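User: Predict the complex with NAP.
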Amino acid sequence: MNQPLAGRVAWITGSARGIGKAIARHLALQGADLALTDVLEDDLYATAKELALESNRKVIHQVLDVTDPVGAAGFVQRTVDELGGLTILVNNAGITRDALMMRMSLNDWERVLHVNLTGSFVCTQAAIKPMMKARYGKIVNIASVVGVMGNAGQANYSASKAGMIALTKSVAKELAGRGVRANAVAPGFIETDMTHQLSPEVKEAYLQAIPLKYLGSSDDIAQVCAFLASAASDYISGQVLIVDGGLHM
Ligand code: NAP
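Assistant: Here is the predicted structure with NAP placed in the model:
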């Protein structure tokens, strides 16, 4: 197989399962060594083992909450020590706490902003040190199409993802001079554990609104991430790539 990411080291947050795991798999199959983190210990261990066997790449893993700045800095140091550097960061960890505005608790508002947006800030701040030193880096932020469109019942989540898009553009402007590129991927409706919680009626309503008339897969997102992590996209920075079957045009 073509190995456009040979010699690269990629840190993917929230990579024990779902979209993060698919991203890790695609990056490894394209030649990258992996640094995997998540809060789900058992799933993370199983994923690290599975991907190391499948790809024959080096894989390290550590339980890490993305909102922990000391833990993030320590993990970046470990990655550099054990894998020889850090070229790619995928800020993928994310949560939802959906509720209509009238019923959304301040706690659910703050928790979603903290994990999705502050977590991306924390991991980015830790990861850019070796990238700036190497004068090359690729940051891919997993936002959401609702960060562009808004969504009833997801004020907290949509605001966090819109914040991630603004973070992406700011980092792209601030670090371009050091060779660091930052882009966002904005998935639409992707079949994972996160969306399995939704009712059949809500899923059907989404399906009707998607011009391509099918839900996306984790692989649909992972392939776009692999492109944005590779040298093929080196002249792209500060962009938001919407991957949603045409939902938002
Ligand atoms: P998922 O299956 O819930 O996976 C997310 C992973 O991140 C889980 O293992 C989760 O652990 C972990 N995580 C949660 N909080 C964390 C924290 N504080 N620190 C570290 N890891 C944490 O979700 P997914 O569907 O794959 O989504 C991945 C990303 O894509 C998210 O950013 C999501 O917002 C975005 N996205 C998804 C869709 C979709 O349709 N699925 C659409 C648009 C955007 P827990 O299970 O313990 O929370």
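Residues 9-241 form a domain with the Rossmann fold fold (CATH 3.40.50.720).
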